Amino acid sequence: MRFSSLFTPSSSTHTGAAAILLGFSLWASSARAQDRTTEAGEAAITDPNQECTPYTYTPVASLASSFPANWVQPAVIVPNDTEALNKWNSIKSSIPTNISVKGTVKGDFSNFTPTYPTSDPDCWWTYDKCDTPKLAGLSPDVINIPEPLSLGYGFDDGPNCSHNTFYDFLSTNKQKATMYYIGSNIQNWPLEGQRALADGHEICVHTWSHPYLTAVQSESVFAELWYTMKMIKLAIGVTPTCMRPPYGDIDDRVRAVAKALGLRVIVWQSDSFDWEVGSTPGVTPATVDANYQSLINAAKNGTYATSGTIMLTHELNNFTMSEAIKWYPALKAAFTAIVPVGVGYNITQPYLETNYSLPSFSQYVGGQLTATGSASASSASVSSDAQGGSKAGAAMGMPTASNGLIVSIVTVAALLGGVARVLA
Ligand SMILES: *[C@@H]1O[C@H](CO)[C@@H](O)[C@H](O)[C@H]1NC(C)=O
Ligand SMILES: *[C@@H]1O[C@H](CO)[C@@H](O)[C@H](O)[C@H]1NC(C)=O
Ligand SMILES: *[C@@H]1O[C@H](CO)[C@@H](O)[C@H](O)[C@H]1NC(C)=O
Ligand SMILES: *[C@@H]1O[C@H](CO)[C@@H](O)[C@H](O)[C@H]1NC(C)=O
Ligand SMILES: *[C@@H]1O[C@H](CO)[C@@H](O)[C@H](O)[C@H]1NC(C)=O
Ligand SMILES: *[C@@H]1O[C@H](CO)[C@@H](O)[C@H](O)[C@H]1NC(C)=O
Ligand SMILES: *[C@@H]1O[C@H](CO)[C@@H](O)[C@H](O)[C@H]1NC(C)=O
Fold this sequence. Notes:
It is a lipid-anchor; GPI-anchor. By secondary structure, this protein is α/β, with parallel strands linked by helices.
């Protein structure tokens, strides 16, 4: 409401202009709070309802027809997408055809498991937490952090439209994390996706539509990963080299597709079950608190004295993010290092674009937390501090109180012209 200060009782002879200016003042202050066109503008919004009101970001919206349908399971290769088809055809021969597609995309394996050999020939994580592939040529899944008492910190299912409070918390605490982003969410909330890069977090692929991947035909597994990589590149400007399978549901067939796309597989050792609160009867906030506490107890009793760990936590909704905030101080006290997973493995070049880097583990624990370099999509709006909103206002050429106290009728008329254009 900065413009209100322009009015004093002595302005009463200009009542008409005052009313117009007051109207503009209301519009200007809400427009400034509602900059929905830049990363910094989105990052400055504090009202969760406003954060979650859809906006249009043209660079992403204009290419919607080049991507699969939003949130439709499973993703398929877009008809006539020759780049995707050529890539699929070039990797197809490396994908095993003797590993069964299992169950349903919603994770009902009841018709499959009764006949599945207990020897787990496919190294199916959902069956027995297998993380060391049986098919030659595949790397083991990442399930922990090699450094002692270190926690690989990360969050699945973002970007969530209402994540500013949580990301502000991470920034305030100078804490970076690995964000496992869903392609459909980035398509809906591209500027929220940009914030992860601007804030120095690591970005990994968490599929286009979040299906159980072992239930998806190989060509669609490819589509789930490929289009998420493409969407992250389009919206954020980088191409990830890591993926996390939804629900951890992976086998050697799915691993082969990820490998062919240059994606390292990251799973976890323990699950907070934060994601099941509200959807699975019996899983309550107390369950999640007990799981966080158990991780902390294990850190304190020597369980991670020789190598650290990874726990599954989410950017899914207000509850999961609130839990992360609530437990952060206790995690900080229990672990000697809390790092993005790539940092834990010295993956200093986390993206295909070679001009962007993360610190090594020793740099990070030594206090160098910030990535160097920047990517094209967010280079103009890398800063995402609390001043973002007013910077956006200044960038729009709006008068500010420091411009002086006299705003002429001519200026008001010009501004109203601007309002009319905005409303048109
Ligand atoms: C694919 O390309 C063919 C040949 O150019 C065209 O006839 C067809 O309409 C296209 N299909 C889609 C879905 O764009
Ligand atoms: C699938 O075939 C490959 C060789 O192409 C073989 O090494 C592997 O053991 C087979 N996997 C299963 C589950 O039968
Ligand atoms: C350490 O704590 C964890 C979590 O409470 C527990 O599961 C584990 O058995 C404990 N280990 C030892 C060696 O006490
Ligand atoms: C994001 O979080 C909000 C607040 O909890 C929730 O209402 C919304 O459904 C979430 N969005 C997605 C896509 O999960
Ligand atoms: C959860 O929602 C409340 C009410 O809107 C809000 O005050 C709080 O900041 C939210 N917490 C997070 C972590 O987003
Ligand atoms: C990361 O780099 C440090 C310093 O060179 C080294 O001690 C450590 O083993 C490396 N970690 C991994 C997982 O390679
Ligand atoms: C990094 O490289 C990409 C192309 O791969 C380019 O679009 C981008 O502008 C570069 N960013 C910086 C900061 O050099």
